[in-house]
Design goal:
This protein folds into three domains: 69 residues, no CATH class; 96 residues, Immunoglobulins (Immunoglobulin-like); 78 residues, Thrombin, subunit H (Beta Barrel), CATH 2.40.10. Helices cover 18% and strands 29% of the residues. A hairpin with a 4-residue loop joins strand 16 and strand 17. The radius of gyration is 48 Å and the shape is rod-shaped. It starts with 5 loop residues before the first helix and ends in a 15-residue tail after the last strand.
C-alpha cells in the first residue's frame, strides 16, 4: 500500500535534493575545497629569477642546519661533512659563487658554522728594517733603510731618512728620498755639518702612509777624524814645518798630507795625523796659526784647511795649472 501520493513523492524528492545541496554548502563552508589540495609543508623559497630556487632546506624540515650540511656533503660525494676540514669548507663556499645562488642559506650556515669570516688584519703604519750607511765623506754620507710592509694601507706617500746626535731621531733633519715603493732605498745626505770628530750620528729610515709614519731600527756611525792616519808614506814629495815644530809631508800617490807631531832623534818617525782625500797634493805650507795650504796638482788649485783638517777656502781654481810648491810669507 502506497503511503504517499505521486504528488507527495515528487515533493519529497525535491526536499531531499534541496537538503543535499544545503549539506554540501555547509560542508564547503566548514572545509573549503582549497584546503583539500595537497601542498608541500615546507615550500622552497623563490629567488630573483624563476629558475633560481634556494635549495638549502634539503631535508624539508623548515630549518637549515647541520643535517642539511650533511646531505649537501653527500651530494658532493663525501661520506659526511667531517671529511673536509674547516678551511676546506671555507675555501669551497668562497670559490663557488654560482652554487651559492642556489644554496644561499646553506652557504651562510656553513660560513657561520666554520667561522669562515675572519676579522681583517689591522691597518698600521709602514714597517721598516735594515738601516744602512755608506760612503761617509762628511759633510756627506749615504744612508737608507728597507720598507718591509706598507701596513695594509697603501700607498706609501713618502719615504726618507732622519738623523740627530742624541738618538733615536724622529723628525730631526728629516729629508724625503723621493720614492714611494717598497724595498730598499738610500740617498746621499749632505747636511752632516758642524760636527766634530768622534761625534756619534744616529739615523733611521721612515715611511708614511695614511695611517701614520713608521721608522726603521736605529743605525749610527762616528764622525771620522779627517786627520786620523790610515796610510804610511808612499811617495813623499814636499816638506813643511808648522809653528809648533810639526813636520808636514805631501804624498801625491796616497793623495794625503802626513803630519808628524813629534820627531824623536835616531828613531823612525811615525805620522800621527793625516789630511786625506786630496788631489795629487804636491805643494804644502803651514802658516803661524797652523792653517795648512795644499797645492793640488790634480785639479789645479790651492786649498786652505784648519789645524783640525776642515776645508775653509779654495784659491786659484781655474787659474793655477799645477801648484807643485808653496811658500808663505809669515
Amino acid at each position: 500500500m502506497c503511503l504517499f501520493s505521486p504528488d507527495s513523492r515528487k515533493k519529497l524528492k525535491k526536499f531531499w535534493k534541496l537538503l543535499f545541496i544545503v549539506a554540501l554548502l555547509v560542508a564547503f563552508e566548514l572545509n573549503p575545497w582549497g584546503s583539500l589540495i595537497s601542498l608541500d609543508s615546507h615550500p622552497r623559497v623563490a629567488q630573483a629569477g624563476k629558475k633560481d630556487w634556494d635549495k638549502s632546506d634539503m631535508n624539508g624540515d623548515g630549518v637549515v642546519d647541520q643535517q642539511d650540511l650533511r646531505l649537501f656533503s653527500q651530494e658532493l660525494g663525501l661520506v659526511d661533512e667531517t671529511e673536509w676540514t674547516d678551511e676546506q669548507w671555507c675555501q669551497y663556499i668562497e670559490s663557488h659563487p654560482k652554487k651559492k645562488a642556489n644554496y644561499t642559506q646553506l652557504f651562510a650556515f656553513i660560513s657561520d658554522y666554520y667561522e669562515c669570516e675572519t676579522t681583517p688584519p689591522p691597518i698600521t703604519a709602514p714597517t721598516l728594517s735594515n738601516p744602512t750607511v755608506s760612503e761617509i765623506n762628511l759633510p756627506s754620507a749615504t744612508i737608507g733603510a728597507t720598507i718591509v710592509s706598507d701596513g695594509g694601507d697603501p700607498p706609501i706617500i713618502e719615504r726618507g731618512t732622519v738623523w740627530n746626535t742624541t738618538g733615536p731621531p724622529i723628525t730631526e733633519h728629516q729629508l724625503a728620498e723621493g720614492g714611494t715603493a717598497l724595498g730598499s732605498f738610500s740617498h746621499v745626505r749632505t747636511d752632516f755639518t758642524g760636527l766634530v770628530a768622534g761625534t756619534k750620528i744616529y739615523f733611521r729610515g721612515y715611511a708614511v702612509n695614511y695611517s701614520g709614519t713608521g721608522y726603521s731600527p736605529q743605525g749610527s756611525f762616528i764622525v771620522p777624524d779627517p786627520l786620523a792616519v790610515n796610510h804610511a808614506n808612499n811617495y813623499p814629495t814636499r816638506l813643511a814645518l808648522g809653528p809648533n815644530g810639526q813636520l808636514f809631508v805631501s804624498d801625491p800617490k796616497v793623495k794625503s798630507i802626513f803630519i808628524y807631531d813629534t820627531i824623536i832623534p835616531n828613531q823612525p818617525p811615525q805620522p800621527t795625523r793625516e789630511l786625506k782625500g786630496l788631489y795629487s797634493p804636491l805643494g804644502v805650507a803651514v802658516d803661524s796659526a797652523g792653517y795648512i795650504y795644499v797645492g793640488n796638482a790634480g785639479i789645479g788649485n790651492v786649498e786652505k784647511y784648519t789645524p783640525q783638517g776642515k776645508l775653509v777656502a779654495t784659491i786659484g781654481q781655474g787659474l793655477i795649472r799645477a801648484p807643485v810648491d808653496l811658500t808663505l810669507d809669515w
